[in-house]
Structures
1.
Amino acid sequence: MAAFPSSIILLSTALLLLFPHFTCAQNINVGTSLTATSNSNPWRSSNGDFAFGFQQLQGNYNQYVLSIWFDKIPQKTIVWYERSSYPVPRGSTLRLDAATGLILEDPQGRHLYNTTGGGPADEVGYASMNDTGNFVIRRRSDSSILWESFRNPTDTILPTQTIEIGDTLVSRKTEENFSMGRFYAAINNAGDLVFNTKSVPSNSEFDDEYYSSFTSSQQNASEAGFRVVFKSEALISILKRNGKEQILSPPSLPLPSENYYRATLDFNGVFTQYYRPKNLGNNVNPSWSVARSWPDNICMFINGDTGSGACGYNSVCRIENRRPVCECPQGFSLADPTDPNSDCKPNFVQGCFHGSLPQEEYELEIIKDTDWPKNDYQLIKPSSEEQCRSACLNDCLCDVSIYRDNSCWKKKLPLSNGRVNTAQGLIAFLKLRKRDVPLLNPQRPRRDRQTLIVVISVLFGSSAFINFLFITAACLLIFLVHNKKLPALNPSGSNLRCFTYKELELATDGFKDELGRGAFGIVYKGAMPMGSDTMVAVKKLDRMFQDSEKEFKTEVNVIGRTHHKNLVSLIGFCDEGSHRLLVYEYMSNGTLAGFLFGHLRPSWSLRTQMGLGIAKGLTYLHEECSTQIIHCDIKPQNILLDEYYIARISDFGLAKLLTMNQSKTLTGIRGTKGYVAPEWFRNTQISVKVDVYSFGVVLLEIISCRKIIEDGLEFGDGENPILTDWAWDCFVERRLDVFVKNDEEALRDGKMLERFVKVGLWCVQEDVALRPTMKKVCQMLEGVVEVPEPSNPSSFTSLV
């Protein structure tokens, strides 16, 4: 009798050895569901190592990612995620459905994602989260696999997982952003494991191949690789058609029984095999360790003719511990502060102005051992170091010159493939503006210092009696100031300061320096506190704001709690008697209108950054801040530019203030001619889509540097005087070169140009239902999702 159980044990052991993928799992029945909430209980594997469900995004209470993660470690490292639905809004539901497999819907019941389709023959029986980290959906009739996460990888593979021909790993955009990144890994038809870059996800071709396993063979097809295998013993290898394999992992690795393993195509483009101990006690929380990474130096290995390189445009890449570190050179800053590998934008306007000599406008920053090997437009050979320096300084087109081996290469922005290269004795001369570009709204010279000198001179040059009176008055003034009750802070708990009217009157020198006028009042320039260099813009609201004190403070506090890099920050307010004023941070470079429609055309790269920035600011107002805000008057005059030319939306939230004593349907506001959505005139419900329409108009203005209604143009002159109609005409006739007036930089970036025009045309659709949300607009502008062909804005077809 004892022999029977022993034989069963031996048979079970043999089956486990023969079928390493066979693992225990808890079945998930059809109809089972999960909800995206902070206390949601995921579907776990039998051994508890892995979990499938919703993981909350760091720092965002309302957004999640549908994913699989290591569940026993504190970091909860994600190894698979569903990219097309990212980010998933709070309250969304995931359900195992008999017909479609997994189906994901948002809180309003709108479809976000599903895994499989099919008829009765493919009816789902159950699903399971396996101990290997593979989530599997099986057919009801025969338990065969209908769908599995191992066959649909994202950026990570796990032990027992393979990469077949046709599978692709795609990096994330950043460590915390699960949108599609720029780096791809796949085994190609020739049999090589290759890594590529792609500037725009929708592009069909890659920018550059920066790693190859060299496992293809033109002489003998059986010698070619066809599969990447991550073995259960943690070795990564390429299996060849003749049965041989090429090992990629190091020969000696920590025991898989004691360590977790994963291999990830990181957001920086490096493919890395990681390990982490499973059990180290309660007081130890180690990070993942690197077993091996590929390639050794991504900064030097990426060298394509298109694309930005390992880092963003204008950035410089250097290697630390086989990882790229991206840095902006002096005079540049990150276009996206949340992405350290993003483009670097110049903190100055390029070009030569006002007829001055270039050497009067610019100076050269010397950077050793740094090169941007592409973007050459002129070679000077032979050349001395001084000649190379002077050649760039005196050339309006030149942004940087590289000197090496008695040769000089002149280059233009944007610069690509920037890297530190100590092997060639390079010297880079980077051209920077000596002083700020003259502002669109130039400030009058401050006279604080001169005034102080005059006061001191008078003080010391006057009689002792006058000095005595002066000192006595000063002491009395100090006493009164120190004993004066300071203005109270806003009781709502926000950081807004409540100013007195007298303070703002002094700060603006009696409301003398007018910056502009708008629908809500007049804006004046000032300094807060008095005598400092902190400039502010003080908006004196019209009389229609003078009633409803409680509602006024409530709405101002809503505005004060908004924080986004593409919004103008509210510093404080005044609510004293009949005086209602708002105090904003001062934007030194004026309005987008003055920037776009001046005598100099801004660069295409800067215009596109501004368009995307405005879209992100509106997305925040519509979907991400604590209280939804509809702007109702988006136009270039209400978009301000800070010292770095970042677009900042102003006057948001004031539309609701304006209507506190009017009908809540907002019928009292009509916006600005040309930017007003058609529904204003149809007595229909106003929604966030009015801002989408206005943004579409502004986007088309940004693209073309032309106003919505061009003065002096009439119908029949060739160019339609109404910009939205002109954009449609140019699009359908494939004449975008005419629309941008032959802007060479825009035409070189033809795919982005077409994408931006298409987005603008979708935004200005007359039918409200056809306009995308601002979140969708951001995704389309960034190239994360495809932009379908737009219909005529005045027709009523469907956006799919």
Note: The first strand starts at residue 27 and ends at 29.
2.
Amino acid sequence: MAFKQPYSVCFLHILLLLPCSIFAQTHISLGSSLTAQNDNSSWPSPSGDFAFGFQKIGEDGFLLAIWFNKVKERTIAWSANGNNLVSEGSKVELTSDGKFMLNDATGKQIWMAESSGTGVAYAAMLDTGNFVLVDHKSINLWESFDVPTDTILPTQILNINSTLYARFSASNYSKGRFFFELQFDGNLMLCTTFFPLDSANFAYWSTQTNVGNTGFQVIFNQSGSIYLTGKNGSILKTFLSNSVSVQDFYHRATLEYDGVLRHYVYPKKTSQPIMTWSSQSFEPSNICLRIGDIGVGACGFNSFCRLDDQGPICECPDGYAFIDPNDLLKGCKQNFVPQSCDEASPEMDMFDFQDIEGTDWPDSNYEKFKPVTEDWCRQTCLGDCFCDVFYYENNVCWKKRIPLSNGRMDPSFGGKAHIKIRKNNSTLKPGGTNTKKNSSTLIFIGTVLLCSLGFLSFLLPFITYMVVSRIYSRKGKVSQHFPSFEEVNLKCFTYEELHEATEGFKEEIGRGAFATVFKGVLAFDDVQCVAVKRLNTMVGETECEFKAEVSAIGRTNHRNLVKLIGFCNEGENRLLVYEFMSNGSLASFLFRESRPNWYSRSLIALGVAKGLLYLHEECSSQIIHCDIKPQNILLDASFTGRISDFGLAKLLRTDQTRTTTGIRGTRGYVATEWFKNIPITVKVDVYSYGILLLEIISCRKHFEENAEDEDQMILADWAYDCYKQNKLYLLLGSDHEAINDITNVEQFVMIALWCIQEDLSLRPSMKKVTLMLEGIIKVSAPPDPSSLATSN
């Protein structure tokens, strides 16, 4: 039963909970203005918790916005011009006649607040995150809370027809494909749009209020709960709540670009080891299963949605690739020539199926058969040029055709999707124009030769055989797929393609013992920069390394791992194609003249830990990386740490915890058990991570032969001495940001010292390391890492 109380009493209760500081205002007088430039000038709220001004969005331009001013990420809570970023030199101004507008650098009006210019006396940025235009009677004529974008804040109220629109992507603030709205009939809904139009398509979550007791307002109260009320003030439904206090944490509820409405908190106290937004609650619980009807679904056409701990993940099935890697909701496209509908050449023998357990596109069926066998279903799909996928479960066969919509993967599905793809993933259609052209040319040449030189008729069959054999031999070689990796969804490149993409392997960006890495550009539908790793030789250990790297990375999918796009296997040519990381390696980031800021380093440390946790505990096959070091951690455009180079990886079966192998890795990062006659475990990666973490903290290499003090040559020993002597500031040099955060630095050092214990049983798992870095688990005092191990 809904709890009822007069609405006025409810609102008064909210006001009484507000801190006094929100009523204080710093007046922004008529004639004031801000200019878009890189000096970060803004109008802060009295406490400094929020600020109003321009934020630069990558290289695209400036966004007029309100943001959390004391949050290092400068999280944006409201914006005016997400669909139309402005250039440097643009200006927002509260004019002398009270108009509040944004003009670009040429003076063209881009945006103006409604009701401005009608008696406005001043503006103010409040401590609630609300920006207001006020008249001489202190009445708000306009406020940002009334025109939200994708976020609502404590004390904010959404009225009938108030709408939150998800932004297009993580870094694009234009309107996206989802919205959250309290509709005129009082129903609160999350909907997809008929993108690029704003109109509603499919409601995938709603409060489903009853007739006669419809919703009236959505209230985000000062206690951190978000609920729907009726006209009489009764609480009809509380849908996002948590137990974290507003006094100690910042709160926000944001409709993310993936369509999920999430309630986040961020610690106000700087004593927390890792300062990041944490999701407390969200709706819907599994968006992959909620969206149906006409449209792209939670992901794009021909893709499918899979839920993990980070939220919905969009993936392409085998034989398909994303149309735009920067906009996954655009969907996927076939990487092969589809089956011909020519009755004279049905091409049934040219196609096969790749199976995906627990995956379906339920809205793409066009035929259903029962009761039938799976083999019967397979054959009828092979013989049907319209059939791109068949789904089989409990003697029922569904045939599907592209575009496949509303794809989802979930363990609750008992059936299996079978994706039709051309054999060997060949992008060339056999028997095409080139073959006919070559055959015609040979016939023409042969005729001329026979007519003019009769004696060549003895040689012509031999010449024809050699030329045609060479053509078909070359085609077979180009289309060859490495037989060990058919189950991995990767693109098979020809050597010529990669030679052209790298301009003849012109720009070298990295070199190792077994391989050289070159920068390249794949110019298909969209230009994409890649890193092409060319193995130097293909004998002995290097052949094994190639197989290990493709097998390991091809099955992984995590934001802290470098993605493998494809490979080449032609003769002696073995190449791996990765997504290009624009900010290079962690080594070049750390070991330079000027130290990178401490906050960025701490986030990279946490990201690498999460990547290792994924490899150790969340993969279908547990992976030991075996060579964690700064050179193998790459940084993407957002300086997110991404683990690369799985050439030395060891895969463990699900029932296996240890493996035996020769010594691998890089000196200085290798755990002591490598040198003992015992099987290795994932704890070797934990040891390497500990050394890496010390390097991230100190911005110096694990071994400095030319160190001024001999005691400082080995970083691990020096770090422990500094820790025991309470002199950790020595590790930080002139890094004032880190010195001012010495408590958290100490926590990081202690975690690193636990990781590098000689006794591997004392080393924590990467899951525990991650929890300690996030401040969820307390870190106890570590023993001397070099003390003799008591157990294996």
Note: The radius of gyration is 31 Å.
3.
Amino acid sequence: MVIPFSRTKRAAAPWVRTRLRSAPGAALALALLVAVTACLAAAFPRALERYEDAGLRHSVEQVPHFRSVVTLSAPTPLPNLPQDQREQALRPATVKRQYDSVIGAVRHPFDPDPRQSSYGVTTSVNQEVPEPWLPRPSGLPARVCLVAQAGLADHARLSQGRLPRASASVTATTPEVEAAVSADTAKSMRIEVGSVLHVPGAGRDALAVRITAIVEPRDRDGAYWATDTLLRTPVLMRVAPVDPESPRYWLGALLLPSEAAPALLGTEGRPYRYWRLAPDPHTLRHRDLGALESALAALTSGPDLQRIRTATDPLTDARTGLDDVLASYSRLHDGVSPLIAVAAFGSGTVAVVVLALAGGLAADRRRTELALLRARGASLAGLAARLLAETAVVAVPAGALGLAVAMRALPGARALPAVLAALAVTLVAGTALPLRAAAAHRVVRIPALRQDVTSVRPSRRRTVAELTLVAVAAGAVVTLRRQGTSGGSGDQLISAAPVLVGVIAALLLVRLYPFPLRGLAGQAGRLRGVVSHLALARAGRRTSASAVLPLLALLTALTTASFGGSVLAGIGETRSQSAILAVGADARLESTVGPLPAGLAERVRRISGVRDVTAVSIAYQAKPNDGRQAVPVVGADPDRYAELTSRTGLGAFSEGVLKTDRRESGSGAVLPAVASPRVADAHGSSPFPVTMEDGSSVTVRIVLVRDSTPAVPGADFLVVDRAGLDATAAKPTTLLLTGPEADGRALRETAGGEVSVRLRADERARYVDSPLQSGVEHLYTAAVAAGAGYAVLALLLSLLRAAPERVALLARLRTMGLTRAQGRRMLVLESLPQAVLAAVGGVLTGWCAILLLAPGVDLTAVALPPSVVPLKQTLLSPDAWSLTVPTLAVMAVTVGIAGVQASWAGRKGAVRELRAGDTR
């Protein structure tokens, strides 16, 4: 007789409290899983935002200030205006009022830094000063730039004298003004306190400028001083900058008080007003990048500039290089964002699958209880609501705790993405059990009979669902393969590609799983022992539906780990290759003035860590065919240089290629040469003369073409046997060292001041230019580690499903004579089919995903800074270690868990498992 389910009587104890008290361990495990997952999910967008903001600030801070500062300038007041109006236009009150108008026209998020922004009046034409005591390197008189920049007292530290002063009545006819100079200017131009410089006047006597102070910049590298470095550092100029033999003269800046600006109208300097807006790096945010670019465009060439012209001068102009800096950062971010999305999508999918797997495990564990409640009349909605309340009591506080930890650990980022991520985790964790239970118990029935994967045919509904999912995933993958990553849809597809490949592989492998099991079980049945047959029979006992989620988690985690490992390996390989290409070896010693000192090679060879030294002579200005185009000619010992090319992988060739026949040596000998493709195309394979830097001449013939060579990083070179060169041209100028552990400090001490020392390790470290680049590596490593951890957890949960059944089976088999070693071997063999399936599938899916995404993933943006131009694009390629290590780890974890479980079960007595009434 069926007892009806009562809806009117109130339970003696609340459902939630009773269930939590009956299974505190399961509740605690769920809370821990939700808290950790919510913390990781909330931390990811906050960490990414911090790296993005730091990368944007670094991009702005690393460029010279004259590129990042927005400079607005108004020309000299028109000469047809009354003199008092021209003077009034340059007075500090007027320029300050116009500066405030400029600041008021600037749109957020471009927020100028008031401490480093500046304004004032300066001359556009540098004036010659006739003082004979000023230095004259080529006999030319020194020149000065007159600058009346506001805020000198706040940005300078007085070194000597007193700050210059001027009255409010200064005009264009004022005969004398006071000024200050920087300490560097005073030292280089021999200016002292009390010195007087006479600037030629325009229609009047010379303007006398008396130096009253020598000042030191408070922030030498700040925008106030560094936007125009002439304010703090004088320059030795050339009359013709492109001619190295052109006469030189000194150019320095005289710092006048703001009140003295009208006096500049009495000179030929053509004074103009300027307002320099230095961006505040602390206000730069990646999320405001689009608005920042719009505000900058409006300020330099849009409506904001028109308003500024109305407030200042109709001819006011704006210029800046900040837009190019933002564009460079945007290109860097566009290059790394697909890689970040792949890591986030892969690890996030694994986490969601594990949460769903945990809910499914709880539903399977309580299958009998829930079936009994349904048989007693419990509604499906009421049962799901109670289970939802039960999990929500645990998941909501745990999710809030994980969110709070992430917010506290990573401050300074937006809260909304983190809250949404933690909320999504809590929602999945809270609804996994109710939804799984509702799906399993939608129909009231007795507990189902055992369904083995090797004997039960999947339902038509499941077949249709799987085929639909495979078709959608395959269509998305084909779309990605055809269109690449250009466009927004490509970015979403490239992010989901590893997961899509994992979904396809998981469904296909689960379908193919029964066939090898049937074959193995048939073969094992013919063996005399029972362990193998029992293990394969147990491996096929799990339903194919229950194997999809664990297999999907494992395949997604393995694919993400393989993809991430290949990305990290590709980044490291790109940096190493670029560093070796730039240096030519593990270390490079090169003379800046002629040949290397005698005996330096032997002294360097004795330094710790140096394994080999290859000496070469490089003539950078050698000219083939007596032409104007110079081509670097490398003179090297054929044996040692051939070994070096083989070790570095830069244009490797055999030692016999360069060797010169000693019987033909002499002035008419033709030296075989290795050349770059461009040089080979220009000169062909016929012998041609080359004039060396010392005036000697050799005849060479190109016998081999290589894209690169260790001695010369450029695209043009000729490599010949050093023995065939003139004695002067053959003297070594460069040492190429082999030895990654070479002591850099000892090398620099041994080399001396006239020999430059470059280490490949230092060059490689320089390539990590932006916090966004290093942040991507850290996030990728963390995502791969998190995905691997969740994969192990998924494997553990899948094994825990059958743990009670395994323990009971071992207890029964021990009464039949099964030894502990045989039981341990049986559990290991039972777990191996799924592990082998996941391992093989993981290698295949990882390899397929990498090959699929390789044409659309360029690692150059992550590996190298924008200032380094690689010889070729760096594409993603499979890394053997990244493919095999995660697979072997899955196998090891599977065998380890099975062995631990068997040992634990062996220590327990069989009485509890074989007690009367046992329903296992």
Note: Residues 828 and 896 are 8 Å apart (CA to CA).
4.
Amino acid sequence: MAHGIDTPDAPSGTDTQVIVVGAGPVGLMLAGELRLGGADVIVLERLTSPTTESRASTLHARTMEILDSRGLLEMIGTPPNEPRGHFGGIPLDLTLPGPYPGQWKVPQTRTEEVLQEWALSLGADVRRGHEVRGLSVHPDHVEIEATGPGGPVRLRALCVVGCDGENSAVRRLGGADFPSEDAARELIRADVAGIDIPDRRFERLENGLAIAARRSDGVTRVMVHEFGRAPRPRTGEPDFGEIVAAWRRVTGEDISGGTPLWVNAFGDAHGQLTSYRHGRVLFAGDAAHQQMPIGGQALNLGLQDAVNLGWKLAVQVSRRGSEGLLDSYHNERHPVGARVLSNIRAQATLLLGGPEVEPIRAVFAEIAATDAGRAHLAGMISGLDVRYEMDGGPADGVGGAGHPLLGRRLPPTSLRTDEGETGTAVLLRRGRGLLLNISGSGSGGGSGGGSEPASERLDGLRRAARPWADRVTTVTATVPAGSPLADAGAVLVRPDGHIAWTGHGTDGLTTALERWLGLARPRPASRRTEHKNTTKRRYDMGKLTGKTALVTGSSRGMGRATAIRLAQEGALVAVHYATNKEAADEVVATIEKDGGSGFAVRAELGVPGDVHELFLGLERGLKERTGSTELNILVNNAGVMGGVAVAETTPEAFDRLVAVNARAPFFIIQRALKNIPSGGRIINISSGLTRFANPDEIAYAMTKGAVEQLALHFAKLLGPRNITINSVAPGITRNGSPVFDIPEAVEQMAGLSAFNRVGEPEDVADVVAFLAGDEARWITGSFVDATGGTLLG
């Protein structure tokens, strides 16, 4: 079993690649990260609807940066900011350098709502009302048994991740070792409407601790602990009468007239899994570690677990993971979790201890008042001080070796690129690795402190990163003077925002790319091809190296030219045909003779079962050649012409046009979205006849108009997944029809073009290749006129 999960002979009967158990914030964050990385995921949740209890309400600086790097802060809005937090009830200024200093008040219900919307928009399958009852692990898959709304459910996947809280069913069923200690002290709390009491911030009274905070909606959250009182035995949550009595004993106030909206108790129990990974079973959030939720650290720790795990697991299940990639999840996050649990235990002692802890509190208060002490505690609570081992440093979550930036988060920085002003968070929103070439600081545009100018270094960086082009974006940027990045030369940033490599050349870059972004895909050799118009071009860049493509109707004409063109750029191309196998085989042979890769796949479109047949052949061919069914580029080219006057158009002929030209592309896209990862491309071939009248092609033009609507509306749906979709409209293009053998007819048709010639299939193929590449990442929902100026009038 290679690397524990990515078995080359994984069973074809799996329902998904990853099952996530638990649809709380951690599970939903993980589901979104997996989908960004192109992994299929099903989320199982015991509750039938999201909880209305807002247990956690604090997001710390590092979590805010992560949410920004996924474009989620726009959905959250601008929450209240509180720069001052606490350490065990001792006031502490949490402000540190960065865009989101302090702590931000977002109800957990809102965080969960935003993460669910995001995960669903990326294609995650969230199934509520499913309680996991059984787990079995096999050499090449896992099986989950659950009870669902319709009865028992059995699901198979490559792996499962338990994100189901401190009472994790996955942890129990899997028999994971979880050393822990029961609570010795507890806080009971409630959200109460209709009471008017003074706000209290960690007020230590004679008999205990009292906390009260009135929200803008008039609801007051109260929390109380009685010194020396152990947790009461109970089977569920405390009743309101219990907190009323405790509040009266500690404060002397009566809150019995209020209306309780939520009552809860939490103690200082703590525990941590011995290992966050057990082969095909992994854990994140409270399923991996149990701690008292002091200062909101538990939620933030869990969300950061999910972001560390998501991209690694997505690479692994695609069978491209390098040795040890998935093990690095435990190696990085277990030490961080242990450190957080340690500081929370210290805080619980300071917060819930009686008069005996006052001397210790006095010492901590002095430490927190110093610059160094305050910064240390604030960095620990916020997560901004986490530093992972990249190569050669201690794996303690805060160590590291080499450049000061190595292993740390990418410093939030304003950048100037060729495309304008941007920020580091924006460059990470695709969930890909980032290779950032620093061109200098201020307006100088120098070498950033290195011996090699940034412009010369860029070519070397691009060559080194080309085999990972499907997982890494290369950007040259100027940083402000004084930025921590100014002297770095170039940095490789992992999808979770941590820097994995720095350098002024390319030494060590390939090793870092393979270590953190997975195995490289082979780069096809350079090759030469020839256009119909005898203009020769050399394709050395291979901008689609590592990509996979499906071109429907590619055994002849524009489809054939497009398949060959995409293969010239390095893509593995599925050449689709309906009936002419010999023609499709000839296209594949041409591709392979030129140094590329392709295979034929048959399916007649416009008939029942067409899409199913197409994807059976496509996925079989992709898996045989790549070990994955990932599809990066879909070109809907197949179509049938009409050429029939209105009076002679029969219902059967009309239905055939609709079935092939409009219905098939819709359902091909629908099915392909299970295979297309973040950064995918969909290109639909329309026609200039949607803008240029021809009475003999009314029905045909109607179907192509429908195709253009696919791009317009799917673009809005797929934007959050970083998938573009566009329409290309050819004009009169040489397609093998006998009419193109008649000089007079060709001359007449050529006169319609601004260039005074008819189009060649390669003219259109070049446009498609552009839209399939990274250069077209900012174009979606567009109509691209590829008629050679025919529509100019």
Note: The chain has 20 helices and 36 strands.
